[in-house]
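Comment thread on ticket #2218

A.B. wrote:
> Attaching the input chain for the structure job we discussed in standup.
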Amino acid sequence: MHYDKELLKALVRKHALQFGNFTLASGKQASFYLDCRKVTLHPQGANLIASGLLDLVLEKSQGNPPDSVGGLAIGADPITASMVVHAGLRNLPMLGFMVRKEAKTHGTGKLVEGPVESGMSCVIVEDVITSGGSALKAAESAKDYGLKVLGIYGVIDRLEGGRQAIELAGYRLETLLTINDFR
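C.D. wrote:
> Ran it. Output below, let me know if you need it in another format.
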């Protein structure tokens, strides 16, 4: 499936965008909520997001795609999985990984899970960018693991300071949509 921005916007409008009074993960109050899991776990939505983000990653990497893609569990997991499948369909050897919110207390106790190794390059994915906190936590954990973070990619930027926080931390943010696409 090829990326279709208008179709993705229609799916977000129909399934993910809600109006009312909400408390966000950042603690901020908001008059709208984006439950992107309703799109990242939707068959059309997963395909559109994976195709669009993979196209964006390839464009920004100028023909030198990253070794891996991942993000903070649980929001980034379906995006990571879909992108890995799309990469495989394009014969790109892009691996996936997950960043736990907390290290396991058993087994290896790792924060980063998956077939990645120190020294590999990666991009971080996220569904909704608000403050940038989740994406930055994933990026820092990946960096601490030894991965080279090339950028952060999101589905929707709420335009509430996340881009600035991410750029201030030294990373580049690219998104498929912003909240302005729905105004």
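A.B. wrote:
> Thanks. Noting for the ticket: The chain has a mean pLDDT of 94.
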